[in-house]
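TA notes. Do not distribute before section.
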Amino acid sequence: MSKIFKYELKIILLKPYIIAMTIITLLYAYYILSTETILGVSDTAPFSGWSFGKYLGDTTLISTLVTLFILSTIYSKRQKNVSILTDVTGFPVRKRIMIRNIIIGGFFLLSNLLIYITGCVFLGVIFGEIYPGVYLVDWLLITIPCLVIILGVGNLLGRINPALIYVFMGVVVLMAFVMSEYSIDINGANYYAVMSGALESLKGGETPFTIAPTFLFTRLVYLILGAAALAGVTLKTGEKRRSDV
């Protein structure tokens, strides 16, 4: 199994363009921190939970798109031809898919962890004041639903047609920018801007950081949808394996 893991890791992640996209993601993170976050969200402090959540959500949009792109490569025609050869080895298809999901999911988690660390270091150096516990709540609420959506919906669409993953990427961008006022973006950034702005207009001045039940509900919905899609992919894989036998 370790040999299969190393093989899948090599063909999925150990490529120059993956390193390049990771560097671009971190550069984008620094750009957001130095141009938007440093000013604060809706007149809140740059190191508040509001500002960090907006920064994390904006940057997670990039890491989500990058991870979906990586996922699309394992459903490409070339990779499917390779999979036919590896099937001959008798290694269970379901286990191979699990290994691929661990690798791709691990990449996404690592990317977002680097984003988290970058934000904490930047704010700590510039302002000397950070709230890592609050930021961790932001990280969990944004990262975990995105992870499950990527693996669930991404795999489901990839099995149907790899091109659908690119369509889904377009939907993710559409929800992030065109439908920003509804705060239903998968990357979760818009909640922090919309809610903090609304509280500022209502109360005036600095608004204490809070997580609204509606935001928690939205994140839960994405978590459930992603989990259901992932379960469907797993069951479909089992059915395919039995039919092949």
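Switch to the second chain here.
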Amino acid sequence: MYEVLDGQQRITSFGRYVNETWKFSIARNGKEYKFSSLDKDEQQKILNSPLTIYVCEGEPSEIKEWFEIINMRNVPLVKQELLNAAYHGKFVTLARKEFSNSNNGNISRWKTYISGDVKRQAILEAALDWVSDGKIDAYMSEHRQDDNIDELKNHFETVLDWIDGIFDYTGSYVCGLDWGRLYKQYHGNPYQKDKVTQRVDELLEDTQVKNKKGIFEFILGGETDTSLLDVRVFDDKVKKAVYNKQTKDAKEHDYSNCPLCRIGHEKNAKRIYQLKEMEADHVTAWTKGGSTDESNCQMLCITHNRAKGNR
């Protein structure tokens, strides 16, 4: 007995046509023909046509290399398809039946959080990635002969239940996030779903947040890493206008055009910085409700701006 590693869809289509298990026809000379409607000699010509079959044997690395060669001129196999071929056996058969079956009733829920084509192994790849901490190859090698996929299924559902227990939002921004890593990093933290929901809604509506996908990790991490949000920054026009205003005022009063330098007693208390030596800063931090406009902008010397942080 052999397991089909490549060409399964074509073989299945052939079988369905000959056995008429699916109602479809083939076109010949402008007419549609089911298998049973063909003349006997035509039926026999199809049934007796020899098929070229390559029997692939070897170690997983050799099998993967073989697949890369035979797919060079066709639609290339994705990484997970190559791994399925390399580690074919009971485990892969069961895993594909669960996670690569487009008729599975759970597909709709799964695709809320996982992007990609189910038939091209996207869901299976995500499930394996989550349970193995990204070491899919090693995990499949270890479990190749397992006669169940309980650990894989249980961990996958645990991650999804964890997401559902924290977030109400199921829009497009949660699809494709690295949920396996986020679960591992944050699943031990307590969250209040109603407060999380309110905060998600606020950040989704905030026009200053440019990376909406970063909202979820931002909240999970205690709202400390604003780089996840790619918050809108001051444009050059605003920075130049604020710089000119501060510099004019500083020269008139004989103190530094950096507000934090001038309150010190060191040599920079009266220093006038060039524009390229300064950075724009939110007077009131964005995380504390400050807006990204001229009224909330101040120019600080690079040293003070980077030391100020989110205060």
